[in-house]
Amino acid sequence: SQKIEQNSEALNIQEGKTATLTCNYTNYSPAYLQWYRQDPGRGPVFLLLIRENEKEKRKERLKVTFDTTLKQSLFHITASQPADSATYLCVTGNNRKLIWGLGTSLAVNP
Amino acid sequence: ETGVTQTPRHLVMGMTNKKSLKCEQHLGHNAMYWYKQSAKKPLELMFVYNFKEQTENNSVPSRFSPECPNSSHLFLHLHTLQPEDSALYLCASSQDLLTGTLNTEAFFGQGTRLTVV
User: Fold this and answer.
1) Pick from A55, A51, A52, A47: which is nearest to A19 by CA?
2) CA–CA gap between residue B75 and residue B32 (Å, rounded)
3) Strand pairing partners for A59?
4) What's the distance, CA B83 to chain centroid?
5) Using an 8 Å Cβ cutoff, are A19 and A5 in contact?
């Protein structure tokens, strides 16, 4: 079946370090992949979109990679801050379907 | 502030009640969505509207009834819900359909935390 898998366990890192979150997909050929941030009790907020023909995308301290051979996207937050603590959701889409991941909880400790 | 407003933020209702969730966007988007988010589960797409027309209903029980009177407003009418329907209900909008080829992003509201007792 088509699915997305994100790190199921919460990620705890020290402030200033780089956080790396993983999104793997199976039995699916996405045209693009997006990352969203969600804080408790709130709706997700869009962060970055990367298309199938792009290897890497950056936005300020954020970087996303997309490897269609490995069927994987990595999401990096450099120089992490406590304010980056949240759940990060991966979603892939093509012209037929959209599939959301469960999300990975990130805690950045001061 | 994402430009998508949901009301109410919290709702407690009995199983025999009738209530409605409201969503409003003034972003000029053509597509609007209702999602259900339960603990330990990914976002579940419930309904999709594109240019006010319902384009998708993901086998949602009839106790959930959507309404889209215009391109800026979306409602979710609730009646005779079950305790397992308790969840965070999220409304979202996008310029074009998320499953289209234009790779558009979704703008979510803050959600309505629904508790069915």
Assistant:
1) A47
2) 10
3) A62
4) 18
5) no
Q: Do A49 and B41 touch (CB under 8 A)?
A: no
- Tell me the shortest Cα–Cα distance from B88 to chain A, in angstroms: 8
Confidence of residue B104 (pLDDT cuts 50, 70, 90): confident
Task: Please identify among residues 40-59 of chain A the ones whose CB lies closer than 8 Å to any CB of chain B.
Answer: 41-46, 49, 51
Residue, of B98 and A55, whose pLDDT is higher: A55
Q: List, in order, residues 6 or more apart from A79 with CB less than 8 Å away.
A: A16, A18, A61
CA distance linking residue A16 with residue A93, whole number of Å: 32
Mean pLDDT of chain A: 92
> Tens digits of per-residue pLDDT, A82-100?
999 999 999 987 766 788 9
Torsion sign over Cα A30, A61, B2, A23:
positive
Q: Which of B73, B82, B81, B1 is nearest to B34 (CA)?
A: B73
The Cα B59–Cα B38 span in angstroms is 17
Radius of gyration of chain B (CA): 13
